[in-house]
Structures are given as C-alpha cells and as structure tokens.
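Q: Could you write out the predicted structure for this multi-component system? I'm mainly interested in how the pieces pack against one another.
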Amino acid sequence: MPDPILAIAGLDAHYGDFQALYGLDLTVAPGEVIAIIGANGAGKTTLMRSISGLLRNQAEAIRYQGEPIGHLRADQIAARGIALVPEGRQLFPSLSVEENLIIGGQLGRRGPWSLEAIYALFPILEERRAVPSTALSGGQQQMVAIGRALMANPDLLLLDEISLGLAPVIIKTIYDALPGIVSSGMSAMLVEQDIGKALSMSQRVYCLQEGRVSLQGRSDQLSRAEIGRAYFGV
Amino acid sequence: MDWLNAIVQGTLLGGLYALFAAGLSLIFGVMRLVNIAHGDLIVLAAYLGLTVTSALGIHPLASLLLVVPAMALIGYGLQRGILNRTLGGDLLPPLLVTFGLSVILQNGLLEIYSADPQKMNAGLLETASVLVGGISLGILPLAMFAIAVAVIAGLQWMFYHTALGRAFRATSDNQAIAQLMGLNRAHVFGLAMALSLAVTGIAGVFLGIRTSFDPSMGGARLIFGFEAVIIGGLGNLWGTLAGGVVLGIAQAIGAQINPGWQLLAGHIAFLVLLAVRPKGLFPRMDG
Amino acid sequence: MSASQYRIVQSSGASRIAAALGLIVLALLVLAPYWAGRADLRLLGEVLLYLSLASLWNLLAGYAGLVSVGQQAFVGLGGYALFGLTMFGGLHPVLAVLVAGVIGGLVAMPVAALIFRLRGAYFAIGTWVMAEVFRLSAAQVSALGGGSGTSLPTPVVQSLADGRDAREALSYWLALAMALLALAVVYGVLRSRNGLALTAIRDNELAARSLGIDIWRTKFTVYVIVGALTAATGALLFLQKLRISPDAAFSANDWTAFVIFIVVIGGIGTVEGPIIGVIVFFLLRETLADLGTTYLIILGMFAIGVMLLAPKGLWGMVRARSDIQLFPLRRKVVAKPKD
Ligand SMILES: Nc1ncnc2c1ncn2[C@@H]1O[C@H](COP(=O)(O)OP(=O)(O)OP(=O)(O)O)[C@@H](O)[C@H]1O
Ligand SMILES: [Mg+2]
C-alpha cells in the first residue's frame, strides 16, 4: 500500500468543554474515495472541520502528504491542496455564481479544473453565472459549492453531506458527476447519510459513533448487519 | 444668492466629509469594526502632511505621495498588531481598544506638535477661483470635491470588480468559509484597514490644507464621518457621499443663519434624519 | 442524596469578611471631614464621584451592553441644571442636585428613544453626537456665560452651609452619599428581575428575546436610571468646582475616557471592578500627573493592555485565582454539613 495522502492518529476535538471526537484513527490513500457514515451528531462534520483547519488540533494528529498539519490555519491547509464542500453549502451571498467559483480558485493551484471545466460539468451554472448565488435553487447551489471546491484543484476533496435536502433527481446528477471528478487521481472523503450511496461511491468506509470509529472496512465486504450495529450502536 | 452660495460651498465641504466617512464605512463593511480613533488618525495624517511638507519643502498635495502609503502601512500594522486580537463577536474589546488608541494618539500629537493650531499652505491654489453663475467657486474646494468623488468611485470599483474586493466581500459574508478559500483573515483585515487609512491619509491632508488643525479635533471629524455614513445608509459608498453632502449643506446653512450654529445644525440634521429615516437615505437593498 | 442536604445561598464567607471590612471603611469615610485635611477631603470627594460615574457606566456598558461614549452629556446637563436652578430658580443647592437628577432622567427618555435606533458600536458614536449637541447648545445659553461659562455666585455658595469648612464637609458627604447611592442602585438593579434579564440579554440577545424578555424596555429603563444618577453626580462635581463652562462640563476626556479606563482596568461587568479601578486610577494620577500628556498616554496603553491581555480587568484576575465575591450576585448551591 502506498503512503497515505492523509493519516489521522489519535484525533480529539472539542467544542468548549464538550468533546466531540475521541482518539480517532483514519487513513486515505492517494486516489482513494473514503466514505464516512454515522448517525446525526456522531462527529462527521467535526472531523471535516478538523481536517480542513476550521478547528485547530495537535500538529501530529493530522498528517497530510507526510507532514503534520493539525496546527495550521484553514487558509494554510487550503493552500496545500485540501478543499472542503461544507455542510449546508455556505456560498457567499454577496458574490455572484461566477465570483463564488473564481474565489474558490484564487490560490491559483494548477490542475484540470477551471471555469470552463466546471461549466462543462454543470452547464446550468454557466447560464446563471451572473446572478447572486442566493438566487439559485438548492441543487444549483450545491453544484456551485462543489465547483468552488474543485476550482482549488485539490489533491484531497472533502464532501460533507452534499445530498442533504436535495431532490432525488438532483442527487443523481451530482453523484453521476463524482466518478469523473475523482478519476483524475484526486482523493476524496465523502460524508453521506445514505448508506447505499456511501458504499457504492467509495472503496472503504468508516462508521462513526459518538465521536469514535465503530467500524471500518472495504465497502464491498461489509455486511448490512455489521453496519447497522456500528451505526446505531445496538 | 447667499443661500445658494451656502448650499454650493456646503456641497463642496461634503466631499471632504465623505472622505472622512469612506474609510469608516469600508472597515465596518468588511469586519464590523467601528474605529473610534478614526478622527485622530485623520488628524495624524494632517500632521504627517505638515511634517513632510515643511521637511522637504514640497507642495502639500505632493505630500500625499508619502502620507498615503505611510498611513496605509500604519493601518496594516495596527490591524495585525492590535486590532485583529480584539475581533470576535464581542463588541466591547474593539470599541475600548480603539478608544484607548484615540487617547494615545491625541496626547502623542499634543506632545510632539503642541496644542498650537497649524495649517498647510497650498499657495496660489488656495485663492484661485472661478466664477460660475455669479458664485465664486474656489479651485481648491472644487478639486477636493472631484478627488473625493473619484476616491469613492475607485473604492466602489475595487469592491465590486477586483480580486481584493471579492476577498473583502467574501470575508464579510462568512469569515470561516473565506478562510477555506485560502484567504487569511488576518491579512484581509490588515489590507482593509490599510485601504481605510490610505483614504484617511487623503482626507487628513485635505483637512490640513482647508483649515487650521490641532490635536484635539479628531473626535469631531470622527463624528462628521459617522454622521455621513448613517445619513447615507450603512454599507453604501455612494450613499456615504450623499450623506457627506447633506451634512455639509446643513452646516453651511446653519452657519449662514448664525455663525455659532454651524456644527449644531449638522448634528440636528443628523438627528432629524435618524428619527425619520433610521436606515439612512439610501439603505442597501440586501441589508 | 436528598435535596434537603443542599441550600441556595447568595452570600459567601468572603463576602461576610468584606462586609465587616466595608463597614470599617465606611465609618472612616463618613468621619473623613474630622480627620482629613481640606485638600485630601476634596480629593476623596472627587474619588467618590468618579466611583459613582464608573459604577453607572459599568451598569450601562458592562451589563446592559449599552456602550456609551457620551455620558458627559448627562454630567454636563447635571452641572448646568445645578447652576441654572440655583441662580435663576432660587433653589437650595442640595435640592437643585436632586432636581438635576430628575431632569437627567427625563432628558434621557427622548434621547434613548432616538439613539436606540443605532446598533452596537454606532450606538456608541450616537451618544457622542448627543453630548456634542448638548455642549454646543450650552454654549448658546448666554445667561450661563455662553461659550466661556460662569461661576456659582457667592450668595448661592454661602447658602449651602455656614463657613467654608462646613461647606466642604457637606459637599463631601453629598459625594459620599452619591457614591453609595450609585453602588446601591447598581447592586439593586442587578439583583432584581431586571438584572437577571440584563445578564440574559448580555449573554445572548436572541435567546433572551425568545424567553419573552422585552429587551428594549429593559435597556431603556437602565439608560434612564443611569442618566438620572449621572446628572446628579454631574451636579455634585460642579458644586465642588463652583465654576462651569461647556468644554469642562461636556468634556469627553474627563467624564468618559477616564471613566471607561477605570472600569476596564478594574474589571468590566463586575460590581467590584469600578471600585478597584477608581483606586488604581487615582493612585496612578497622584503619582504620574506631573507627566501631563505622557500620563494620559500611559493610561491609554495600560487600558489597552488590560483589554487585550486580561479582558476581565484586575478584579477578573483576582477572581480567576479564587472564587471570591464581595457583592454576591450569583446564587450557588452549597452542601449542608452532615449533622
Ligand atoms: N459549534 C458547536 N458547539 C458545540 N457543540 C457542537 C458544535 N458543533 C457540533 N457540536 C456537537 O458535536 C457533536 C458532533 O457534531 P457534528 O456536527 O460533527 O455531527 P455530524 O455527525 O456531522 O451530525 P449531522 O449528521 O447531524 O451533520 C454533536 O453532539 C454536536 O451537538
Ligand atoms: Mg454534519
């Protein structure tokens, strides 16, 4: 197995007095897609926030491309090639659709993704490029959020519940685009409530429960019963 | 004719007030910071202009070439060194720290330059005027007004059409997510304050050419700028220009009635507008 | 464990010791005219009036979240009311101080109605505008000397009490009473239902609103109370000075900057903070005042340093090390000793 692009070891996370993650271990290999599943409040978003630097950590708890990054600021981590599609999309309301995309690429990292490539992936965005991002439907906003992260040409893409609150047909459009996105060698971590989707999109899966990894394994080898137990802790 | 003249002169003065206000408005827009030391920084810029002018023997307007970058540097340093530590939800720390800065600046200037009023001499430019429809318009006030309009237009363009403006708006919308885009918040805020004080630099030099100044007059300049911002409507740069003009005209009309009423008339115009249009003349549509 | 093993108390051991010490200090203060020299007595009176201003500003900013930088409006208003009422209304000075307080409260109402439209930091500058309006208006009143001000006429001064020593003592006792009144009112407000509401608002405005607390009314009430007491304090300040002018009466430096520094250094949002702050402030002033403007620069830096490094002030630093409270506001659960 090649060196992992991301290696998490003994990661704790706190909100004030409340501890949300307990000694989490996790790895992602280059080009691999990992799924993170778990009940509401299990700590999935907290994990994403920790990796992307929105929550600070011990330097050594998170190693990326062989270097400790746990202590870095979010902008420093972004510059190293980790991009997050945050839970709830979180577009910039004062920016137009196109400006939201451009600002995603403002670090100027090289790679396959550009405005043209995003517009080719989601043609509807090109049509609506000049409107404020708040004027879009939820599905279109999610496309912008994904496009904004891709514009950074990341080596590791973090996706936090990108299907949340979207109509099934939109979810299908977005997930149909995913294999094409990661085929370029990018690694990805996918938080997903729909276990079937999570397993089919990923090579390996981690299940979180109350801030701890309760199960991990290859997506094609885990049984439904195992996952059910790990998910609900019964 | 006197009244028309008062209105015209007040309008031109309003350009200067808009410059006082623009820097205030900019940093409020980007980081919700209200800088109580803003007026004292305007006065600091006037003294820098005076020092540069007399040390190098150059025209006050030429001193802008040094004062503006110097103020920008001061702004960046101030923000990164002190003010960034005060930001984060709570209203009190930034307010009290800038209040402390105001006292330090005022007394520092007093220490260095004494309380004697000073003035920069712009030479012939100060007396030159043109006659338009029976009203004599000073070239200097006209030029200042034109520059004020140009500065506001430039800021407006920067805000909506440049990468820096995009970074300002994104950071203003959501600091954490902007950070995810690789924008270092501390640096973006530093740049916003640098820009704010660069504008303040222009305002200060113009102030020093237009009237005599002393270390104690910062508070009133802060208030004028603040009134222009609120009259115009928060977060609207062109509104700020309009606010400055309304304030300038109110003061000129007050002075026309009774010389002692100049400032009072401006404040009262502000309070009346606050009572009848609390969101200002041109509130932001999305606000 | 049954519930009867616990009781809810508001006082603590430390506060009982503090109460005993407080009584001794209070006795010393009441007797000051008999042991202090004239200059010391004046200084003590000034300290007490600053304590009043600081406690009131602390209630406003530290508890109600109304960060005003324009309280000089009410200090000056009180001062001018004293001069106007005694010179033209023929009121006895002590009565005039009381009426000045009432005027301060009445004026605070329309002022609040207007400037409460401004939020947060803009509210702060709005209060300053108000103070400027008051200052400029005072300069227009030629009967009170216009821009250059006026002195309290000798007959008015003499009506205060017979003999200079008696007058100095009376004006000192009034200052002491004022400080005690301000402290009592602040403490009373904080322990009342309103006080609980204030703390709730300060901690989370949205949550407070959802609990049905009328934020506007609570803040309005505090603003008016503080306005009244600040005006009364202002009247006493100028009863000590015997001379008034717009610049002195509405001085942002004297009545706001110093007061803010006192509260910040002592510890904002605590009842004890202003007391500590006023002591530190006057110690600094008496030792460094010869430095003039440098002293103010040092004071400003000191306040900024405290704000950045110890935002809860000196009292907050004490509290971080021990759970001491001189004026117990929090109720705490204490286990009853087993019989
Ligand atoms: N800002 C915060 N402050 C305090 N606690 C928080 C905060 N954010 C999350 N938590 C707590 O941390 C725990 C983990 O939350 P997290 O958002 O990571 O869960 P999640 O797995 O993403 O859940 P969901 O499926 O609902 O998105 C929860 O118990 C949550 O209540
Ligand atoms: Mg989540």
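A: Regarding packing and overall arrangement: The pocket of magnesium ion (ligand 2) is lined by residues A 44-45, 87, 161 (CB under 6 Å).
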